[in-house]
C-alpha cells in the first residue's frame, strides 16, 4: 500500500563535497555529518531544513498486561495519556525544551479519554487480545491501522512537517515488541525479552515464558510482517510501522525512539527496505534486545544515555543534534569563504 521512492544517490557526491569543504578536518563532525548527509539525500542537497517537526505518541493497551508482565497494570496507560495532555510527563518536558509540538494518538487504549479532544482518535479496539492465548488482532485491523497512520501522516505532511519523531505508551508493549523481534529475526525470546518498566528476575522469567508461549501458539502464522503484527503485535506498533512507511513515502525523515519504536522500524524495513534511508535512530535504550536490534538494522544510535522510558523521550533528546547537523551544513563557512587553507585527507 505504500510506495517509497529510494533516495537519490546521485546527490551523494555533491553533498559530501559540501560537507568536506566546511572549515574542519575531513569527517571531524562524525555522526553529525552522517545525519547531514541523510537530510541532504532525503530533502535535497540545497534543502536541508527541519520544518515543523512533530512528535507523535502512539498509545494502546495490551491483553498480556493482565498476566503480570509489567510493574503496573493497564490503567497506567490512560493515566499517562492524561499526564501527557496536562504536560507533566518526561516527554512534555523534553518537547518543550526543544520546541517540539506533541500529538497523542489513541490507537486503542482500554477506555478512551472521551473528555480530551486533543487526543487523536485512531482506535483499532479497546486493547489487544492476550498474545499468549489468542491473536492480538485481525489482519483487517492491521490494514486499517496502516490506513489510519497514512491519514495521520498525510495531515502533518500537508501542514509542512518534514520530520516526525515517534514515541509510544502502552503498558505491556515490551512483551509484544520482543515477541515481534523474536519472530522476525528468528531468535530466542531469551535474547530479546527485557525488564521493561523494571520488573524483577522472577517476573522476567514469567514474561519470557509467556512470550515463548505466544510464539509457539502462533508459530505457523508468523510468516510475514502483517501476520506477525496480527498474532503478537499491538495497535500502537501497527500504527508506528504504518507511520514510518507513510512518512518515507512523503520524503519525511523519521526519528525513532527506543526498543518498541525500533521494533516498528524492523517491521517497516521488512515490508519495504527503502524505508531505512529515512530513519534516524536517536538512542540505544537499556532494554534487552535493543542493541542487537540496532545492529541488525545497521543503525548507529546518536545517544546512549541508559534510558528505558519510551514515550519518545530519547527521540526528543536527540533534537539538538539534528539541528546541529542541519545548521553546520547550512551555516558553517567553507574553506574558500573563510580564507582557511583547505585540508586534504591524509592517507
Ligand atoms: C509511569 C510509567 C510511564 C511510562 N512511560 C513510558 N513507559 C513505558 O513502559 C511501558 C513498557 O513497559 P512494559 O512492557 O514493562 O509495561 C510502555 O508504556 C512504555 O512507553 C512508562 C511506564 C510507566 C509505568
Ligand atoms: O526502549 C524503550 O523504548 C523502552 C524501554 C523500557 C520501557 N519502555 C520503553
Give short descriptive properties of this protein.
single chain; 347 residues; alpha/beta; 5,6-Dimethylbenzimidazole Phosphoribosyltransferase, Chain: A, domain 1; Rossmann fold; 2 domains; 6-stranded parallel sheet; 14 helices; 46% helix; globular; binds alpha-ribazole-5'-phosphate; binds nicotinic acid; EC 2.4.2.21; nicotinate-nucleotide-dimethylbenzimidazole phosphoribosyltransferase activity; transferase
Could you tell me the number of beta strands? 6
What is the overall shape? Answer: globular
Strand content: 5-15%
Instruction: Supply Rg.
Output: 20 Å
Q: Quick one: CATH class of the largest domain?
A: Alpha Beta
Note poorly predicted spans.
Answer: none
- Biggest sheet statistics: 6 strands, parallel
Percentage of residues assigned to helices? 40-55%
- Give the SSE order as H and E letters: HHEHHEEHEHHHHEHEHHHH
InterPro entries: Nict_dMeBzImd_PRibTrfase, Nict_dMeBzImd_PRibTrfase_bact, Nict_dMeBzImd_PRibTrfase_N, Nict_dMeBzImd_PRibTrfase_sf
Enzyme class: transferase
Pfam families: DBI_PRT
Function: Catalyzes the synthesis of alpha-ribazole-5'-phosphate from nicotinate mononucleotide (NAMN) and 5,6-dimethylbenzimidazole (DMB).
Amino acid at each position: 500500500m505504500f510506495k517509497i521512492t529510494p533516495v537519490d544517490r546521485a546527490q551523494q557526491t555533491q553533498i559530501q563535497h559540501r560537507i568536506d569543504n566546511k572549515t574542519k578536518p575531513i569527517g571531524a563532525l562524525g555522526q553529525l555529518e552522517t545525519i547531514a548527509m541523510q537530510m541532504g539525500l532525503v530533502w535535497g542537497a540545497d534543502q536541508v531544513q527541519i520544518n515543523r517537526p512533530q512528535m507523535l505518541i502512539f498509545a494502546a493497551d495490551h491483553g498480556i498486561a493482565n498476566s503480570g508482565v509489567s510493574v503496573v497494570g493497564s490503567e497506567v496507560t490512560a493515566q499517562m495519556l492524561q499526564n501527557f495532555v496536562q504536560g507533566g510527563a518526561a516527554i512534555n518536558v523534553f518537547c518543550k525544551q526543544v520546541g517540539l509540538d506533541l500529538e497523542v494518538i489513541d490507537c486503542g487504549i482500554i477506555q478512551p479519554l472521551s473528555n480530551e479532544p486533543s487526543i487523536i482518535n485512531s482506535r483499532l479496539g479497546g486493547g489487544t487480545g492476550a498474545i499468549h492465548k489468542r491473536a492480538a488482532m485481525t489482519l483487517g485491523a492491521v490494514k486499517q491501522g496502516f490506513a489510519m497512520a497514512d491519514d495521520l501522516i498525510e495531515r502533518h505532511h500537508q501542514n509542512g512537517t518534514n520530520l516526525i519523531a515517534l514515541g509510544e505508551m502502552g503498558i505491556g508493549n515490551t512483551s509484544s515488541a520482543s515477541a515481534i523481534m523474536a519472530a522476525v529475526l528468528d531468535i530466542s525470546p531469551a535474547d530479546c525479552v527485557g525488564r521493561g518498566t523494571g520488573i524483577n528476575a522472577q517476573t522476567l522469567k514469567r514474561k519470557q515464558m509467556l512470550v515463548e508461549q505466544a510464539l509457539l501458539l502462533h508459530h505457523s502464522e508468523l510468516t510475514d510482517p502483517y501476520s506477525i503484527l496480527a498474532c503478537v503485535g499491538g495497535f500502537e506498533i501497527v500504527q508506528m510501522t504504518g507511520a514510518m512507511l507513510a512518512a518515507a513515502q512523503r520524503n519525511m525523515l523519521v526519528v525513532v525512539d527506543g526498543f518498541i519504536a525500533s521494533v516498528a522500524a524492523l517491521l517497516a524495513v521488512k515490508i519495504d527496505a527503502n524505508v531505512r534511508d529515512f530513519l534516524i535512530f536517536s538512542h540505544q535504550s537499556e532494554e534487552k534486545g535493543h542493541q542487537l536490534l540496532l545492529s541488525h538494522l545497521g543503525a548507529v544510535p546518536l545517544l546512549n544515555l541508559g534510558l528505558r522510558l519510551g514515550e519518545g523521550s530519547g527521540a526528543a533528546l536527540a533534537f539538538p543534534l539534528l539541528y546541529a547537523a542541519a545548521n553546520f551544513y547550512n551555516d558553517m563557512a567553507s574553506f574558500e569563504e573563510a580564507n582557511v587553507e583547505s585540508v586534504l585527507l591524509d592517507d
